[in-house]
Each structure stands twice: as structure tokens, then as C-alpha cells.
Design a protein that fits this description.
Layout: H1 2-15, E1 19-23, H2 32-37, E2 42-44, H3 49-61, E3 65-71, H4 72-75, H5 80-88, E4 95-99, H6 117-122, E5 128-130, H7 135-146, E6 152-155, E7 177-180, E8 185-189, H8 194-206, E9 211-215, E10 218-220, H9 224-233, E11 236-244, H10 249-258, E12 266-272, H11 283-289, H12 294-304
Helix pairs in contact: 1-7, 3-5, 8-12
């Protein structure tokens, strides 16, 4: 995903003279092509992420379109006050890109995990939250963000995530993308969980259940039209995310559901538990600790059907 991000900002810097890229002491070689095309529009802001957000706010107020990029917990939790006051309060068009989100950096320990960022950012007034499913959606999300008039947070993985789109989809902020039709259960996936979710759908299909899969790339605003449809027609609707069950995508859907008359479908939520992961290992190892693997997801859903 980060390579796709580097590729699309390099394309966009040749199309939009307002684009500036700010990095928090990361990805210097990753952006060599960007710097070749636009040497005066790349700024390494160092390990000073809060200051980077302030600089981006000033640039946006001067007519530029800044994109801020670094590892997810450092560009969200570390500088939350600056995002809230400098970006959201002034409603300036700054795009924040957090790389290595969720458990992508599981091998580096809890300092590099980010299972709270969706919760922190979606509560901020005016903030849009996007979690692309693969490299194709990353490119589409960045292009859509530059056309959006306000702050946006894009939450991406790290590298080698499976690509699920054979061709660029019709990507619209706030509109999910159907990847697989189905009637018994609907799996709503956000972010880099999509390949696991598709595997879980296949296991449900093998067990005799028709499983629909939606890439719910926008956590805020939610695609309410899609939610009304799947909660009306399916027996179970499940949210799957590499994020805490508290405050994340599943929580947003539960809040939406609580404010409406009862629907026929049950809601099931899959995410990380309310505890730190003290063990280190691969991303797949970390996912298994939270039951975020295809077998665990499929088994729990089968028990609800």
C-alpha cells in the first residue's frame, strides 16, 4: 500500500501544482521519484509530527494541498491536539496518511501498533476517515481526498497486501464497494482485512451460506444506504477491522443501528480486544491472538446463522 501511495502522489504532483508532501522522518527513498519531479514540494519534518501538522495547516490556509505521511500512531495519537485544533477547527483541506496501520508493524511491538486511531479521529468534527482495502483503493482514495474540501485521514497498511481489485473501482467517499454478492450474511470489511474477509466468505460458502462482502472503505461518513439494505435483507451483518472493538468501524455501525428501528439482521463485530498485545510476531500471528483470521471469523458467524 505504501508503494501505491508513493506512486499516486508522484502522479498527482505533476497534475496539481498545489500538492505538497510532508513526511515525519520516514520514506525518504520511497519518495525519490516525487522529489525528482518536484524537489521543492517535499519536506522532511523530522520526528516532530505535531509541528508537521501545524505547518500543513498553514500551507492549506495559503492555498496549498498538503499531504502529511508517517507511521500511524505517530501521526494520530502523538499529535491529536494539533489535528483537532489546527485542522478540524479551521476545516482546512489537509490529508493525513498513516502507514503501517493496525497490526502491520506487529513485529515491532505495541509502540507501533495502531488499534485506536479510527476511534480518535472519527470523533473529531469535520474529519473524514478512509481505510482503503488494497493498493488500488489507496490510489483512488488519495485522488478523492485532493478533491475533498476538508481534513481527511487515510489509514493504509504497509506492504505486500493482496490486491483484490482487478481494475480501478468507482471510488466515492462514503460509498462502499460490493466485492461479492450474497444473501445470508454480509461481511463489512474496512482497511487491510479484506483478503482475510474474502477467505472467510469462501469458507461460509463451502458450509452452505451465501456470503456478501463489502469493502467499507469509508468509516466516516458511513454508507447508510448500504447499511439499510444489508441489515434489511441478511440474517447476520458482520464488521471486520484491524482495530479495537471500542470506537472503531464496528462501533460506528452499532451506534448507527442503535438510533434506528430494529432490523431483521444480527450484528457481529470482529476487532482487537481491549488489551495490549505484549507478544511480538508476524501480522498473521497478531491477528490470530484477536481472532481475526478466516477460520475464527467463519466459525463465529456460522454459530449465529
Amino acid at each position: 500500500m505504501r508503494n501505491a501511495f508513493a506512486a499516486v502522489v508522484t502522479e498527482l504532483t505533476q497534475e496539481d501544482p498545489r500538492l505538497v508532501l510532508l513526511a515525519g522522518d520516514i520514506g525518504n527513498r520511497l519518495f525519490n521519484q516525487f522529489k525528482d519531479f518536484s524537489p521543492n514540494r517535499f519536506y522532511n519534518c523530522g520526528v516532530a509530527e505535531a509541528n508537521m501538522i501545524g505547518v500543513a495547516a498553514g500551507m492549506a490556509m495559503s492555498g496549498l494541498r498538503p499531504i502529511c505521511y508517517t507511521i500511524t500512531p505517530f501521526i494520530t495519537a502523538r499529535c491529536l491536539e494539533q489535528i483537532r485544533v489546527d485542522l478540524c477547527y479551521h476545516n482546512v483541506p489537509v490529508t493525513i496518511v498513516g502507514t503501517g496501520s493496525g497490526l502491520s508493524y506487529a513485529s515491532l511491538g505495541a509502540t507501533h501498533h495502531s488499534c485506536e486511531d479510527i476511534a480518535m479521529l472519527r470523533v473529531l468534527p469535520g474529519m473524514t476517515v478512509i481505510c482503503p482495502a488494497d493498493a488500488v483503493e489507496v490510489k483512488a482514495a488519495v485522488r478523492a481526498a485532493l478533491k475533498h474540501d476538508g481534513p481527511i485521514y487515510i489509514r493504509i497498511g504497509k506492504k505486500n497486501e493482496p490486491v483484490v481489485h482487478a481494475a480501478p473501482p468507482d471510488f466515492v467517499i462514503g460509498k462502499s464497494i460490493c466485492l461479492r454478492p450474497g444473501n445470508d450474511v454480509c461481511l463489512l470489511s474496512t482497511g487491510n482485512m479484506i483478503s482475510v474477509v474474502l477467505q472467510a466468505a469462501e469458507k461460509l460458502e463451502q458450509a452452505g451460506y451465501s456470503a456478501r462482502v463489502e469493502s467499507f472503505h469509508t468509516v466516516k461518513p458511513l454508507d447508510e444506504e448500504c447499511l439499510k439494505k444489508v441489515f434489511s435483507h441478511c440474517r447476520v451483518v458482520a464488521t471486520i477491522e484491524e482495530h479495537s472493538l471500542i470506537g472503531g468501524f464496528g462501533a460506528a455501525v452499532a451506534e448507527w443501528l442503535a438510533d434506528r428501528p430494529p432490523f431483521p439482521a444480527k450484528l457481529a463485530r470482529f476487532g482487537s480486544a481491549d488489551r495490549f498485545l505484549y507478544e511480538t510476531g508476524s501480522q498473521n500471528f497478531a491477528r490470530r491472538q484477536y481472532g481475526l483470521d478466516a477460520d475464527s471469523i467463519a466459525e463465529k458467524i456460522k454459530n449465529l446463522l
